[in-house]
Structure prediction request, 444 residues.
Amino acid sequence: MVENRFVCKDGAQCWTRVSHRALTDRHGNHTGGLAIMSDITASKAQAVELRKSEHFVAALTDSMVEGMFALDRDGRVSYMNHAAERLLGWTKDELASRSIHDTVHYQHEDHSPYAAADCPLQAALRTGTTVRVEDDTFTRRDGRLLAVSYSAAPITIDGQVEGIAVVFGDISARRAGEQRQKQELERLTWIGRIRDALDEDRLMLYAQPIIEVQSQAVVAHELLLRMVDRDGAIIAPIRFLPAAEQYGLIEEIDRWVLAQAITLAGRGHKVHFNISAKSLGSRELIGDLERGLRDTGAALGLLVCEITETALAGDEAVAEAFVDELRELGCEIALDDFGIGYGGFAYLKRLPITALKIDIEFVRDLVENPQNQHVVKAIVNLAQGFGREAVAEGVENQATLELLEEYGVDYAQGYAIGHPSPIDTVFTDDAPNTTPTQTRAGSN
Prediction:
């Protein structure tokens, strides 16, 4: 069977399909041939138009920014445009005839199973209705989750639903923007609550013990900030300090913490306190420290100011001058979260730092993590080389404490040693938890 184009008597061209058959007699001898010719001009024209339509549709959908795919009645992929391939990481050929639910739509954002019975795409197939979903999740080929919105409309032929066409878009940027707005609004709501807590004396301190590793004796406590809500609930600092830093309340909080620390030092207790990057260089804080030490007669070395590497990096000149003043006034300086920044070595050389606090990320799984073991040993060697002390925070079990002792760490704190507790339950009398080696000149 062959197809040929012929010219008719009137000059018009037509397409024909010709089938040939040999004719034989009863002895099998060839006696002639039979040709059947069919006019296929119309069907040829329809095929050309169909191909044009397919090319047009492909060109149209492939120019779309949104992803698009079509599903047959069984929910299997019959078409995908270029944007869908890019967004999902699958090629058209790879997904062809595969169930979109089993491949792309099988889990929620929290990775819990997405039952087919609850799938809006399956519902659109079952009911033949258009659905619109503003916030959902597809799973890419590499396993990453893609936040999407989509619409699904039925494809009908002769009144029968033969599938659905799905158009979807990446809403990751929109979702991130909404999350930022939500966080910003949440921080704004904290401003009034923080202001009220300061005015109503509803800030409080917890204390966590710090031991000398060799003797296991408690030699100091770190002061940890909390807020008491009006209903009595204790609020962790991670919830309100970011807002305080962003909206200018952090220095007042740091000065409040310093006042409590000075009072405890005046009673003979060695305490660590933290200050934020925003308070570095504060003349008011330095003035508070000078007056507090003069009024309480606190011994030298009982106040340890913990400053992170990232705080020092904000304005190094101001930070260095501030740290020098603290040391001149008798404060010890601990470089907090050591090991996760980039300027630690330089600060050790330039600043009068007395201790390195090894970041909790290197301590928490120290026993099981050889990489962290190398890091901790290196920090201890560094501290010893510079004549500094090494403090490990986040010690959660006895095995970790024993390993820290083996490495030569000087001090440690963590849940294995003691949980943070309100200071009025920790410092129940004026008995000091350390013996100062030096007394401030002019103190009582």
About this structure: The chain has three domains: 1-63, 64-170, 181-426.
